[in-house]
Amino acid sequence: MRAVAFDIFGGELDVRELPDPSPAPHGAVIRVEATGLCRSDWHGWQGHDPDISVLPHVPGHELAGVVEVVGSDVRGWRAGARVTVPFVCACGTCPSCTTGDHQICERQTQPGFTHWGSFAEYVAIDHADVNLIDVPEDMAFSTAAGLGCRFATAFRAVAQVGEVRPGEWVAVHGCGGVGLSAVMIATAAGARVVAIDVSGEALHLAELAGATHFVNGGDGDAAAQVRELTRGGAHVSIDALGSAQTCAASVESLRRKGRHVQVGLLPGGATPVPMDRVIGQELRLLGSHGMAAHAYPPMLEMIRGGILHPDQLVTRTIGLAEAGKALAAIGSVPGVTMIDPQS
């Protein structure tokens, strides 16, 4: 198969011929029709993820496609099914999974991290009966691929972890794919959304997604501007980028008793958090890590019902030959970039 791979962390990302994957007895191999370009893949390429320990490595974890073959123990799926997957592939049997929390599975696998990913013509997925999600015939693969990481992650962060309610102020720090998804979902929940980014183009996309107030993070104290716009601070603030600066700014954007949701991955090392503010104002600091496959139906219903429009967040589609350069320059093009490995 053709795939994008690297031999050293931070090194060249090139297209090469690699062996086709084979399914585990409980797994499946998917022919990838679309895969998203995500900052998490950039972190993996840079060596920030301890799950990537064997090189060469193929990145990519946000995908949709067609089942090519299933393992001998798979009961619910057959070749030819249109599917997507969450980026956290659960085992289905550990204590976390048995309580429904597949997104924090204790034996989770992640394509693009624990094994070769979806910047390729084919990818292997573990525990197919637990992790595969049916893609409706009328949904484009490029739309479905974006659900597996960014959109589903944002959906759970906003609706389930952040518990956003109508009329609340929500601040979204970083308007890349996750942030724009969070803006759209929070708006659909009836919240008033403040979008924060250093890019004017990204803020324009946030406006199209439903944000009504905007802060350019390069113009002074972003948190102070959020507190002024919201007359005291946001009820919920989401760090959708993942940096020491955006994490701290998100916490400092909150009003008393506010909820900070950390979605963006942070590089290793110390992350300064204003804990005096957390204590003095009884803030809640919450982590959000994807969304289990069994939790997708409400989100899919909102998409099919025209309430949510993840397809509007895709701003370009490229082929495998362009994927390496695009990953190295992640963040330079606003919106969501999709890769078509079959082109």
From TrEMBL:
Record-annotated Enoyl reductase (ER) domain positions: 10-339
Keywords, comma-separated and alphabetical: Metal-binding, Oxidoreductase, Zinc
Top-rank taxon, per record: Bacteria
GO molecular function annotation: oxidoreductase activity; zinc ion binding
Cofactor(s) named in the record: Zn(2+)
Record family assignment: Belongs to the zinc-containing alcohol dehydrogenase family.
Protein name as it appears in the record: Alcohol dehydrogenase
Organism: Nonomuraea terrae
